Amino acid sequence: MTQITRRLLAATSLAALGLPRQAGAQSSAFPTRPITMVIPFAAGGPTDVVGRLLAEAMSRDLGQPVVVENTTGAGGTLGAQRVATARPDGYTILLHHIGMGVIPTMYRRLAYDPVNGFEPLGLVTEVPMTVVTRKDIPANNLTELLSYMKSQGDRFNLADAGIGSSSALCGALLSNAIGVKPTVIPFRGTGPAMQEILGGRVDLLCDQTTQTTEHIRSGAVKVFATPSRTRIGTLPEIPTTAEAGLPGFEVTVWHGLYAPKGTPAPICARLTQSLQAALREPRVIERFSAIGTTPVSQDDATAEAHRRFWTADIAKWKPVIEATGSYAD
Ligand code: MLT
Q1: Which residue ranges make up each domain of the chain?
Q2: How far is CA 205 from the centre of its chain?
Q3: How far apart are CA 202 and CA 192, in angstroms?
Q4: Over the range 62-76, which residues count as b (16 or more CB within 10 Å of their CB) and which as e?
Q5: Which in 20, 105, 253, 273 has the greatest CB count within 10 A?
Q6: C-beta 260 within 6 A of ligand 1
Q7: Same topology for domains 33-127+253-324 and 128-225, yes or no?
Q8: How far apart are alpha carbons 184 and 171 in whole angstroms?
Q9: Cα separations (Å) of 150 from 97, 180, 295?
Q10: Is residue 105 lining ligand 1, measured as CB closer than 6 Å?
Q11: Ligand 1 centre from 26 Cα, in Å?
Q12: What ligand 1 atom has the least distance to the C-alpha of 170?
């Protein structure tokens, strides 16, 4: 066989696989340069903490740096847009959370497709939320907190990370459940929002245990409940919202990894493989556990499981958002 015949045969088999020649050539060596992992919320916050742990472990597996870029704003949609519109070559990926389940309904106008703009690569972890306040709030249980909120009206402040974030979702559900309209102060992530709670300048924040655990344990914030079905293993003294008197109100944050739509299948498969390797690493499991979370199973860290879960989550939140009218526009 001549060299030309061999090249022709190789090109034909790549075409049969539906891969552009360039992408096929790249995927066999992928990655050959650093990968950017976009995190759509502020550095130092809960999504950032999970993303940086993952990026570090994936770098070890891929043999190339996975560099975190915090593209923040508009409730996580700017970061998602950055990835949906990036070159689909595997060098720009997104670590996002439950926002991927609510944004498709909450945002009726976006400059990117919040569902078909991505290839899901695998789920990462689930993190419970907690309702916390500045430590000197005059309430000692959820019932007292809710009556204080009612008595204060819009003088009561609630911080969040913008419409589309988990803190905003949880804050809106809480406010709707008791029929109050507090003043909402949006930040680019709950990392900066937490600083305002710690400084006593903002009243309430719904936030993930990956950030709140240390402040709850040190007494720097007051905690009232977790909007979960069951109590949190690492913070068992905190009642669920239902136990504390507010049933029918649950938000748990899940995280997933994405590539832009059209990223070649072999590259997506390599990224999924790397995600799985990262979640198996004992030091990752240990560090996740130290921040109160557990990596998902290897079966859930797959594109198929991620797509199923994500699709079901969009369907789950659609009627809730429609009923509360919590739209971004
Ligand atoms: C963050 O990382 O800042 C949070 O996950 C944002 C949020 O969803 O509240």
Answers
A1: 33-127+253-324, 128-225
A2: 17
A3: 11
A4: beebbebbbbbbbbb
A5: 253
A6: no
A7: yes
A8: 9
A9: 31, 6, 38
A10: no
A11: 34
A12: 9
Q: Give the contacts of 153 (CB within 8 A, at least 6 positions apart).
A: 180, 181, 182
**What is the number of the ligand 1 atom nearest to the C-alpha of 48?**
2
Q: How far is the CA of 201 from the centre of ligand 1 (A)?
A: 19
Q: Reply yes or no on whether the pLDDT at 100 is more than 90.
A: yes
How far is residue 143 from each of residues 49, 129, 245, measured CA to CA in Å?
Answer: 32, 18, 7
d(CA 130, CA 251): 10
Residue 47 has pLDDT above 60, yes or no: yes
Q: What percent of the chain is helix, strand and coil (3-state, nearest 5)? A: 45, 20, 35
Q: What is the mean pLDDT of residues 110-116?
A: 97
Is residue 66 within 8 Å of residue 59, measured between CB atoms?
Answer: yes
Pocket flag, ligand 1, residue 62 (CB < 6 Å): no
Expressed in angstroms and rounded, the spacing between residue 109 Cα and the centre of ligand 1 is 21
Ligand 1 contact via 47 beta carbon (within 6 Å): yes
Name the CATH architecture for the domain at 33-127+253-324. 3-Layer(aba) Sandwich (3.40)
Phi/psi of residue 18, each to 5°? 80, 20
Contacts 24+ apart (CB under 8 A), 197-200: 197/132, 197/133, 197/134, 197/159, 197/221, 198/134, 200/134, 200/135, 200/136
Cβ–ligand 1 distance for 167 under 6 Å, the answer yes
46 CA to centre of own chain: 8
pLDDT at position 148: 97
Mean pLDDT, residues 192-207? 98
Calculate how far, in angstroms, residue 41's C-alpha sits from the geometric centre of ligand 1. Answer: 6
Strands 204-208 and 118-134: antiparallel
The predicted model scores a pTM of 0.89
* Per-residue pLDDT at 329 exceeds 80: no
Residue ID of nearest Cα to ligand 1 atom 1: 189
CATH for 128-225, options being 3.30.465.10, 3.40.190.10, 2.60.40.60, 3.30.420.40: 3.40.190.10
Buried residues in 197-211 as b, exposed as e (16+ CB within 10 A): bbeeebbbbbbbbbb
